[in-house]
Amino acid sequence: MAIAVNLYYTGTEGSAGKFAREMVSSGTVARIRAEEGNLRYEYFFPMDDPETVLLIDAWKDQESLDLHHASPMMKQISDLREKYNLHMKAERFISDEGGIPDRDSQFIRK
Description:
By secondary structure, the chain is an alpha+beta fold. It is built from five helices and four strands. It has a four-stranded antiparallel sheet with strand order 2-3-1-4.
């Protein structure tokens, strides 16, 4: 059962983008991706909202996510959020173990 969390970071004057770039340039993103159980840690920039950055953060299971949340990196991330005065919205999704149903797969172009 994989867990994906969409985190929307919103700031002003480009601060969310600056945050994401510093997360990458500091090596924090690489260290998170190397953690046991991490499946995805990737930033996206919505076309219609230049003050928001979307992070897709996916983990193998709740235990992996809990270990990440207990890691020293969370302090670094929290400090950067404060530095850039970001506000957050979160959405959490649990994977469907059966995959994409046949009735939906017809809409996916391969």
